[in-house]
């Protein structure tokens, strides 16, 4: 079947309605997938497309339609699809006749990967680091890191934070504010829009830090001194929530003072995504352990734990997985790390991401259903809310549940980032719109995702109620492509907002 000319849109995109292809072929594949695969499919349910070709930002489906991909393999594609330096690295290994998997044996490919990885690590960690390879998924890296700190400290418990998602190890991102599952204690995570204490800003971050300190030091808290604390510098699946820099520095100080290893989960934030090569660099924090996956494999499965040398107990027989010697992933990862570093793509992500965030802020003024826009670098989230809903009921800690003044009561003394003291009282603080969130609207977020797909834009969903539309474009995104992404997203929000206004009369048609 011959191909007809396609219409080029701004940013080099292609009009998804004019590219020819075989729609019947795609529908057949989707029908068989629905019949044969588990109902637990998530991305496939929301994104009924069959990718057959891809390059950079663009994916082409089996039906010939083309899309701008701002999901990027859930953040795994730092350079987008099929970047030339990645393909060249993979072909070189294939053509060399080298083994493709050798467990954890030393190889030239592996040596080159570790060397390049050490070039990028925060200086405070690079000069005393060890690397441990494990199974290829991010959850494998988290599990390995947890085993590492438990063996090193002789303790068993872990501290994580509400909204965080660390794979299977620390449970789902919608766990309660303080939950005990036998191994993991979840504590309040500071954020502005849905601050667990209802105040946001520096005061909310201070209260969260003091809550953590109280749990660590109070024998009556029910939590023993943990084997480690794990934190995402920017929560990804939890709804794109950047950790305040001052709060993260306090977590570093609290853990260091108590000899509790700090684990930074950089699985989604690493390799330049947030505007620094590693997101902990924004706050100047040097963790004891970093867990890495997604982008470090250059689009192929790879996971690594980097840790302080003195934490290495080297216990024999510790299971770390069979597939920890993937030579193609290491070669692709080396090429990706080097390209990101040499071309200063983190700095590019910081500049372009700040510009996109600034432009997206206009959505909060134009559409009442857009509750918040937030992010760091090219890790961006837009939270959708029900503009007719009532404020409150957002999971904030009630005043009666104060811990040493935390969470309300008669008032707590807080310090902002400049060190100035202020008084926070549940009776006197009157949060503005940014501090009085409306109920989340997962239906609106899903509607925006569908409208984006109709316009040739692929976005993800996240947040504790899947009410946050997430943008994770490749770091190679151009200015023109960014403009096309924002235009399509704004148009999708406009369509979904119209649906919301008429939802009482008729449901939104998928």
TrEMBL record:
PROSITE patterns, sorted: AA_TRANSFER_CLASS_3
Biological or metabolic pathway of the protein: Amine and polyamine biosynthesis; ectoine biosynthesis; L-ectoine from L-aspartate 4-semialdehyde: step 1/3
Enzyme nomenclature, EC number: 2.6.1.76
Positions of region (Disordered): 1-33
Molecular function via GO: transaminase activity
Keywords: Aminotransferase, Pyridoxal phosphate, Transferase
Cited PANTHER family: DIAMINOBUTYRATE--2-OXOGLUTARATE AMINOTRANSFERASE (PTHR43552:SF1)
Protein family: Belongs to the class-III pyridoxal-phosphate-dependent aminotransferase family.
Listed name of the protein: Diaminobutyrate--2-oxoglutarate transaminase
Source organism of the structure: Streptomyces violaceus (Streptomyces venezuelae)
